[in-house]
Amino acid sequence: MKQARRQERMMLDMGRYLEKWFGRVPIAVQLGDFLQLRPTAKRLQHDAPRATDTVAPPASDEEELADDEAAQQTSNAAELGRMLIRASGNWEKALDVAKTKDRIHLKPTHYAYAQHLEALEDVEGALTHYEFSGTYRTESPRLLCSMGMTEELGNYVEKSDDSHLHRWYAQFLESKADLDGAAREYTKANDWLSLCRVACFNEDLDRAQKICEDSQDQAACYHLARHLEAAGHFKEAMHYFQLAGRSSHAIRLAQENQYDGDLMSLALSSDPSGMAQAAKYYEQKGQPSKAVILYQKSGQQKRALELCFSARLFDALRKISDELNAESDPTILAKCAEFFMQHEQHDKAVHLLSISKQFDRAVQLCAEHDVQITEDMAERMTPEKNSMEPSHRAEILQEIGKLCRKQGSFQLACKKFTQAGDKLKAMKSLLNSNDTEKIIFFAGTARQPEIYILAGNYLQSLDWHNDPEIMKNIIQFYSKAKAFDKLAAFYDACAQVEIDEYRDYDKAGGALKEALKYMTKAAGEGDERVISLQSRITLVDQFANVRQMAKTEPDQMVAVCERMVDLPDIESAVRMGDIFAQLVEYYGEMNDYNSAHRTVERMRQRGIVLTPYLDRSLLETIYRAVGQPLPEDEGEQRPAPPDEMEEEIPEED
């Protein structure tokens, strides 16, 4: 009687729950009928008449069950349908419903079915459904153990590839003191920590070390390190602490046992806190150089510098100062700069003053102590635009440029003068570098008459008559500067080269005409230089015509030449030697060697050296024809006296 009432109360509670949350009172009524709780079902129908109106009383229990299944499927009550089917004992149907319409409860259904099979002692079926439910890692071993099927348990685990099962079985074997079997299973589970723990328990340290070295498992290495430390093997423990990534423990052991040789390498591979810990140890041990390195690497730059100051570690301080930048603590920068100045390390002081933006003081220090300014140093001492008044910035750049020019860094000086806006000084500095390509480029970009003239003057000092490009640039620069007097002088020089080197009076006349054109623009028609050029052009043209007359009017040519050699200012336009050479060559062609000989002797009487004007073969022919020996001092180039040669040799070296 009490049992029936308890069941009735349970059904009432379930019915109310279903009605409240799911509106499933008809299902509760049918469930009550199925469980033969007719009074309860009637009470539920009375409590919810609208819900039960739609359900016709089944003719029999089987018909009720069939109707209930159809109702659950049509009303999407898959969960309650599955529960109802399970309650009927039709597990295959329950699994099918869960698989197709209620997959969220598929694994719980497998689990419930496995428990059902376990109660029926169907071990194979229970194991299968425990696997389907995903609970086999704990439930399968429990089932086999509870039934005393240890051999089957071993076979079951052996067939599985699941590492959790192998680990569980290893722990089971270890609890049974089967350490070899446990080690085998731990290996299959890749549980290196447990494997190392078993080896340490057996005091098989060689095997434990091999496990750690092969696996590089940090947990295993840490366990072995603690075991070795407890056994007093500190060196080995330090090694395995490091492999485990626990450098702080390795550093602690090194300090406790005074392994100073190993401590430095351990600290450098540690984190900042480990480095700082080791640095403090070295500082206390009186090894400041190592402490400075570790403080610096751990980020405690200020402490590293303080130690450098107190221990006077110049090299370490220089290295640290190289890593300082504009974002460093201004106090540190100032202190370092002051320290370097006190110890006459002026280049480092300049570097620190520059990055701390104390530009005036940095430049002053360079000037006072003749600090060699490199390109990097000059750039650091250059203030950024808009960082100060433009006039002040220009003054600093001017001072840097002067120092660079004084030190022979002409291109760097040019750059600083240019940044200061003084292109004229920049050009003058660049000229001292003798870098023709840069001089031409700078002059072309500067666009200032004075700079064009400076560039033209410099190019004239080069071998311009053998380099057409340089000659072109000279003319171009003087033209852009409208320096007509310079152009006139250049064309005059061109004419002289044509005369001296090539005896080409036709080209010389053309060059002199260009010189006259520009001199007229520069000085005017009545200027003495213009008149002088006009006179020279007349003489040059006259002699150029004479050389052409030799073939057509030889007598006239001879007369003109004889007249020209007597002109007082002939050397200003035509070389006397060229006039005499013209006569000698003509007489030689005519085989009039007596006249040729007389003309040569006239040249010698006037002090004219023969070899620049006459070929040796011609002279030998002339003197042989008149029966006289060739003068030794005129037939070939006179060698320099011995003392002059001795002076020239060192100059060539």
From TrEMBL:
It comes from the Eukaryota. GO terms for cellular component: axoneme; ciliary basal body; intraciliary transport particle A. It holds the Pfam family TPR_IF140_C. GO terms for biological process: intraciliary retrograde transport. Residues 45-73, 626-653 are annotated as: Disordered. Residues 60-70, 643-653 have a biased composition (Acidic residues). Residues 485-604 form the IF140 C-terminal TPR domain. Residues 69-477 form the IF140/IFT172/WDR19 TPR domain. InterPro entries: TPR-like_helical_dom_sf, TPR_IF140/IFT172/WDR19, TPR_IF140_C. This is Intraflagellar transport protein 140 homolog (WD and tetratricopeptide repeats protein 2). It is found in: Cell projection, Cilium. Its main location: other. Keywords: Cell projection, Cilium, Repeat, WD repeat.
